[in-house]
## 1
Amino acid sequence: AQSVTQLDSQVPVFEEAPVELRCNYSSSVSVYLFWYVQYPNQGLQLLLKYLSGSTLVKGINGFEAEFNKSQTSFHLRKPSVHISDTAEYFCAVSDQSSNYQLIWGAGTKLIIKP
Amino acid sequence: ETGVTQTPRHLVMGMTNKKSLKCEQHLGHNAMYWYKQSAKKPLELMFVYSLEERVENNSVPSRFSPECPNSSHLFLHLHTLQPEDSALYLCASSQVGTDTQYFGPGTRLTVL
């Protein structure tokens, strides 16, 4: 069965510095990959998704992620973070084994230091 | 109202109470979901309704009972809950055949 690992529960980073949030999944057979963001006291919002095609996916708010099939990874990056990026970020995967329901990681809290 | 709304936003209940959570989507979608979000754990899918029929029930205890009267509304009826059921309950909706789910803000449930 598919599983998702977000290795870092918290990532502190200075404002305007680059950031990478890591996501690995267990099975590489024909997956769909997603990053969602949850701002404080809000629901989850889609940041970006990979379904097929180019392995570099651009999303909202300047975020991008790269699908790496050999590493079974889908890391999220932003070249320069802003205080408004403070949130929790969730990686999710779907494939045939999950009937295309989303399998979620435990989340990574991005903490922006001024 | 736009998107997905949930009421109440906060709920405190005793173990013997009966309460209901409500979700409404204004996006014209035909699939709706209940998730449980606990701290430091992945989101747990509880129930899925597609075209108003329950298609997924991930071994959720019977003290949680979903109801989907139409494609825009979803309820989660709660009774005789346990303290470990305290969590954020998220509702989501999507269009069948598409991959993106749209989430409500959640109901923060505390069971005393």
## 2
Amino acid sequence: AQSVAQPEDQVNVAEGNPLTVKCTYSVSGNPYLFWYVQYPNRGLQFLLKYITGDNLVKGSYGFEAEFNKSQTSFHLKKPSALVSDSALYFCAVRDRGNTDKLIFGTGTRLQVFP
Amino acid sequence: EAQVTQNPRYLITVTGKKLTVTCSQNMNHEYMSWYRQDPGLGLRQIYYSMNVEVTDKGDVPEGYKVSRKEKRNFPLILESPSPNQTSLYFCASSPAWFGNNEQFFGPGTRLTVL
């Protein structure tokens, strides 16, 4: 069965430090992978996606994500966190070999402290 | 401006009183979807529509209805709301239901059923 796991409910990081938000997935075929961000009282906004090719994907606001097929992971990263990055982050996967359904993780709250 | 709009943004109602949450997109997208967001559960899909007059159940359709008479509109109907439908609701759209298209989300509707 398709699934997406975000093992951390919350990630705390000091401003200026690197951040990582973890995501692992389980699909039967080849996936499309997405990251979305939700700021307070706002809808989800698309950050970046992995389709094929280069395993390191660059997205909006200086974020990037690394696709690791052997570990079935798609961790979100940023070299230097900003307080304004504090938000709720969702990983999502679409299983191209199955129903093409988009499955969301449960979300990880990122808190960046000054 | 390309966007997905939802109305109302906030709604408090009582058990059994029928309500409709509207959703409209101005991007000529074929695919539209409704999600509910609950703490610890992430986003769960309620209903989706691949095109006009084509709708199907998502993961949690019980107690909800939808219609897609026009491409731009996809209202969510609660015929007899119950307290367990208290949640944050998001409408989303994308150019097509398949492939690597990211979804565009509305700002959300916070519903409280007393």
## 3
Amino acid sequence: DAKTTQPTSMDCAEGRAANLPCNHSTISGNEYVYWYRQIHSQGPQYIIHGLKNNETNEMASLIITEDRKSSTLILPHATLRDTAVYYCIVRVYSGGANNLFFGTGTRLTVIP
Amino acid sequence: EPEVTQTPSHQVTQMGQEVILRCVPISNHLYFYWYRQILGQKVEFLVSFYNNEISEKSEIFDDQFSVERPDGSNFTLKIRSTKLEDSAMYFCASGSGEGRKLFFGSGTQLSVL
């Protein structure tokens, strides 16, 4: 699996957009980009995933650069409950089990 | 929304004892996983399970560990002879046939004394 690089920590003001970057310069053509988050010591929570195109769901948007070497997770209006560790994971998915390998992630702190 | 349920939420055991951690995955899911997180460290993959057999396991998942789906609803992780270094939060996860999205439980905090 391609390695990912994320900033260790970021702050964001409540109500503003939180933009979390991820570098995955060695990503291969069949690797997906997944984002999960972990609030305090709870189980990780799925946010969004994509292959090539930008994706949006009720939680966030995922912007993947055209060369796929980096991506940005956008939380459009951050709330205090979005304070968490955010993990960017790159993984081939060809059907079957989808074992994900977590890095150290970005600790996002939303400030009132 | 359906969720993965783990019991107990906390387990304290003596070194050398056997423990069984229990999970009830989401009912129509086919893929099951165990992860663990030692305090302050990364979430680590242990094992994935499909069609009543292990599909992949990490180096952590040695002979002291085993998994089982004893009936149609439960998925268990057994540690045969616990060591101090097994102290961690253990997360169960499940995924549907589509597989891409994993749903995690809230974890079992295992403390080995």
## 4
Amino acid sequence: SYELTQPPSVSVSPGQTASITCSGDKLGDTYVCWYQQRPGQSPVLVIYQDTKRPSGIPERFSGSNSDNTATLTISGTQAMDEADYYCQAWDSTSAIFGGGTKLTVL
Amino acid sequence: VQLVQSGGEVKKPGASVNVSCKASGYTFITYGITWVRQGPGQGLEWMGWISPYMNNTKYAQKFQGRVTMTTETATSTAYMELRSLRSDDTAVYYCAKGIEYSSSWGQGTLVTVSS
């Protein structure tokens, strides 16, 4: 079965750039979206169709997807960005989530 | 846009649970509803989707035969029934607007399976 692999954790200093990767076979051939989930809250869509930001999501969130890796980049990371991040893609007609990455802002 | 889910449930192994999701703020039939669950301390797990317009569904293979997703367009409500519950079905169950990607999520419903 298809799998999406994310690093369990990423740390970043406030104001720096955080990059969270999501790897899968030929992932660049399909759209990827990203969700942010703060503790005790429902997920929030932050990137869809690889690079698009929903209304209300800050410009510091951006996405890319090529070959076997999709990347969520947070520029000028703020304390409020500390959360779990999940990538999601499609394997034929079924959706798959990555295992999630805990972003810590130190 | 708002999705309001039913309250938490405690069920015994072997029982069934029915979680509701009432949508407002958009035209219900024009977007599918996706169901996702999250076990304690675990990641997100996709369960499937339903299209209120076409009334068709797609379930994750893992839940085939145990899950049924339905909608009631008159009340803009989606339902997810999970049968033959086991302890590892203990999780927060979410409904979300959209199929390809989900732009709005419900608040989650905790389903606890315990004898």
